[in-house]
Amino acid sequence: MAKHLVGKINEIDRKGSRTVRIQDVDIALFKLSDEEVLAVENKCPHKGGALSEGMVCGKVVHCPLHDWKIDLYSGKAQEPDDGCVTTFAVEVDPVNGSIFITM
Amino acid sequence: MKKTKRKLVLVGNGMAGVRAIEHLIKLAPEAYEITIIGAEPHPNYNRIMLSSVLAGGASLKEIVINDWEWYKDNGIRLLAGHRVTQIDANRKRVVSDQGATVDYDELILATGSNPFMLPLPGADKEGVIAFRDIKDCETMVDTSKKYKKAVVIGGGLLGLEAARGLLHLGMDVSVVHINPYLMERQLDETAAKMLQKELEQQGMKFLLRKNSGAILGKKRVRALSFTDGTEAEADLIVMAVGIRPNVELAKSSGIEINRGIVVNDWLETSVERIYAVGECAEHRGIAYGLVAPLYEQGSVLAKKLAGLETTGYAGSVTSTKLKVSGVDVFSAGRYDEPEGSRSLRYQDEVDGVYKKIVIQNDKLIGAVLFGDTNDGAKLFSIIKSGESVVGREKELLLGMAVSGQSASPEARLKEMADEEIICGCNGVSKGTIADAVLAKGCMSVGEIKACTKASGSCGGCKPLVEGLLKLYAGDEAGVGVKEGICGCTPLGRDEIVAEIKRMRLKSIKEVMNVLEWRNSEGCSKCRPSLNYYLGMLFPEEYVDENESRITNERYHANIQKDGTYSVVPRIYGGVTSPAELKKIAEVAEKFDVPMVKFTGGQRLDLLGVKKEDLPKMWEELDMPSGHAYGKTLRTVKTCVGNTFCRFGTQDAIGMGIRLEKAFERLNTPAKVKLAVSGCPRNCAEATIKDFGVVAIDGGWELHVGGNGGVQVRATELLCVVKTEDEVVEWASAYLQYYRENAQWNERTSTWIERVGLEEIKNALEKPEDRLALVERIQKTLSLTTDPWKQIVENDHLRKNFEPLTEALTINS
Ligand code: SRM
Ligand SMILES: Cc1cc2nc3c(=O)[nH]c(=O)nc-3n(C[C@H](O)[C@H](O)[C@H](O)COP(=O)(O)OP(=O)(O)OC[C@H]3O[C@@H](n4cnc5c(N)ncnc54)[C@H](O)[C@@H]3O)c2cc1C
Ligand code: SF4
Ligand code: FES
């Protein structure tokens, strides 16, 4: 396990997303409307769609390819679909806004 | 403590009985221990499809409704190949011819019918069969390999379908009928004559007004003789003269029978705990011979057995369709003009179309359609609804499509009863499809087909299945919750737009708060819709919410399956230049674009572009965006027109370019495609566009509501104008009216189907109305900017195309 500094909180728009690559894993970082930052593997459990490109609604992201809904906390696809993506622990420094991912 | 389950036994492994069981195990999965006893050695199959099997449209394997696994998976014990010979109602048990004894708490009889065999001398000879089950089908197929001549006795639905099948198998087929015309139980004489002509063209022969006398031959049939002394040669005789409810078992068990087993509205027989359903049952004096009513009975019985409230079965109005390829026949209700009724007819000898509707007390009570059966389902639903048809007679007769005020297809689907059969081939009801979408999550016609078999055979019902999919898809809110534009709100488009106007709501968030959205941040359907409605209503004040746009519009490119994007520069009217082509080529080379392709919209597509390259490529291209990704104007296709073409009557290219320049970047409810053709040969395919312009000598025809996509639809003529300015004026007014009235994601084709061309014509007819619309669209257009110019110049927007800078590992 290692902690990685990936960027600053103001580099991601609200209800937006950015990507980062750590140890050959593509990761999508999302900033929810309440400024919380969450990270999941950037690969939809359906057919590998880039989740970073999807629309963020509350705590779920809609995959841009076929509209599966992925819960960003649990990584689980929501009913009626079935599947799961890896989630990563995120910390945000409250003072300088640095974002860290542990993996 | 484990509750012991009650024992349910079904006699008859056919369509009606098993259907009731299917319902029951959905309603009360754990309530019964179920045993099904069936005389045929097959799992439950679709009897209706036997006709298709004969005619080569399906294999025996394909017509199985529930395979052996289904019984296992549902814990149902199946005794196939067992005929029940005795019911002991006192000890509550049944006995089969194979010696099985099964106890029951509840017993369902679904023994179907027996084909009626004419008691002719010689009817026991080899080669004399009925048309009822798989065995009969197999006999016909085998016989056709060795023999040539077939005679079908009976010119009704079943007989004609058998005859058609035998023709397909290569036999020489004659149909013997006692009446002067065919299908007299469904058709009147005119329609029957047209049908006969059609079938004769397919090779069928007819012997009408013939009374069969005897079957001749030694061991095997050789000929059929008639009471008038004539004969017809035959190696095979198929009797299709009618069916008799199979009541033997019930009768010998002391259950009350008449023609069929007598049942009340709850399908109860005269003996306690014994029910009857299907063709063997007689309800209010009627024993039905079609699946739709039997399925209705089955669902009532299932509810009853599941202990649910039900108002009972009240009988059915039936409709029939002849399943013979190349012949369209539909009949429903009272086609026979009972006393006190009047009928209206339409006949077109040239196209072979005949229609008749029968009206009594202002209500539609019957219909016969031949040649054009498109309105069958609609007429049938009007018959069943019992609504008044005063003033609509002509519309009903001549086809609903001609009238603007007819109910939309969606509305018609919505009104349909759950039990109504959508897929006749596979006997799939509306309710089953609803269930597949809502409960099983089917999200495409393919999935619905896999799940229910609907549209799996002839595919004729596919538009209906699609319609239902549209109706139900996305309904995650569950049954009983009214669904509006999506599962987040019960409000529909018009209600929402009215509220936004009334309260002058100014942001998506405000709309959701004030209108009490169930899902505080909405979903991928309502967010883009609201974003569109707000922008349309308040073009000057509303700030577009980029995060509420779908992916393609957010990144101004089409996302592809591997996460790359495409670049489509605008090429006005499909006209380019060597310099422009060179520039595109250079950029493609520089960025290693994997594919350069001509699109179907007369321009170039650079495909497989990495997201981070998008802004750089657009910067170098320095061309306007082609908006190949948005709910906006896409392309304006043109043909060469009078610039070069020998037939051209006007400058189609110039007109096209002018339109494309006028409307590029316009936000619309759904994508909008235009085309301009230089003459009625229409090389730009203008008549399948949202707005199509066809030049004629001295003017321009304006066509609207076309679509070349999923549901192809030809345009309807809006009007004819004289000058190019008028074309732009009408296009502007039309597009603005569409912008202001259509639902988000509704193409003009669906919109026009919904509201009717008349409404649009009325709205655009007066010059002052048109001008007001033109003014509004111009206001909106004056506020648009090229998205890529903006992105290229704005770091805040541009950053979203790049990954975050290399991650820095802090500790381990
Ligand atoms: C590039 C192009 C195919 C080609 O190589 O020729 C294309 C590509 C796509 N079409 Fe198309 N359509 C293209 C011409 C058409 C045409 C023909 C035309 O416009 O003349 C049609 C039928 C005409 C019509 O729309 O009335 C067409 C009917 C569709 C439909 C069905 C629309 C409908 O209302 O039924 C969709 C799906 C949708 O929009 O929801 C679609 C959707 C798509 C999308 C955007 C799928 C998507 O949402 O991501 C495809 C993007 C592929 C990609 O990876 O970049 N495409 N598409 C054509 C671009 C034309 C252009 O220059 O802009
Ligand atoms: C060729 C053909 C085409 C048709 N086309 C259409 C159509 O287009 N549209 C339409 O609506 N309808 C059509 N029908 C009619 C439709 O198939 C029937 O209405 C329907 O199958 C009746 O269902 P059921 O369950 O009552 O009887 P069945 O499906 O006949 O089932 C009864 C079953 O019970 C079994 N059985 C009988 N007695 C016993 C016993 N004592 N013990 C155990 N098992 C027993 C029988 O072997 C049979 O398998 C067609 C029928 C045929 C033959
Ligand atoms: S038809 Fe259109 S949507 Fe379908 S694969 Fe081709 S480009 Fe894609
Ligand atoms: S790849 Fe994500 S929904 Fe299909």
Considering the chains and any ligands shown, give keywords for the structure:
heterodimer; A: 103 residues; mainly beta; Rieske Iron-sulfur Protein; 6-stranded antiparallel sheet; 44% strand; B: 812 residues; alpha/beta; FAD/NAD(P)-binding domain; 5-stranded parallel sheet; 36 strands; globular; binds siroheme; binds flavin-adenine dinucleotide; binds iron/sulfur cluster; binds FE2/S2 (inorganic) cluster; oxidoreductase activity, acting on paired donors, with incorporation or reduction of molecular oxygen (chain A); oxidoreductase (chain A); nitrite reductase [NAD(P)H] activity (chain A); iron (chain A); Rieske-like_NirD (chain A)
Can you offer a commentary on this structure?
Chain A: It comes from Cohnella lupini. The complex is a heterodimer of chains A (103) and B (812). Chain A is mainly β and 103 residues long. Chain A has a single domain (3-102), classed as Rieske Iron-sulfur Protein (3-layer Sandwich). Chain A is 0% helix and 44% strand. In chain A, strand 2 (16-22) and strand 3 form a beta hairpin. Mean pLDDT of chain B is 90; it is low at 401-406 and 475-482. Chain B has 812 residues and is α/β, with parallel strands linked by helices. Chain B has a five-stranded parallel β-sheet, with helices on one face. Chain B has a five-stranded parallel β-sheet with strand order 9-16-10-11-12, with helices on one face. A five-stranded antiparallel β-sheet of chain B has the order 21-22-25-24-23. Among the domains of chain B are: 6-113 and 245-306, FAD/NAD(P)-binding domain, CATH 3.50.50.60; 128-241, FAD/NAD(P)-binding domain (3-Layer(bba) Sandwich), CATH 3.50.50.60; 493-549, no CATH class; 630-785, 2-Layer Sandwich (Sulfite Reductase Hemoprotein, domain 1). Chain A binds chain B through residues 1-7, 11, 13-16, 18-22, 29, 33, 47-50, 53-58, 62, 64-65, 67, 69, 79-81, 100-101, and chain B through 440-441, 443, 476, 519-524, 527, 547-552, 554-555, 559, 561-563, 799-800, 803-805, 807-812. Strand 1 of chain A pairs antiparallel with strand 36 (808-811) of chain B, so a sheet runs across the interface. The complex binds siroheme, flavin-adenine dinucleotide, iron/sulfur cluster and FE2/S2 (inorganic) cluster. Residues 44, 46-49, 63, 65-66, 68 of chain A line the site of FE2/S2 (inorganic) cluster.
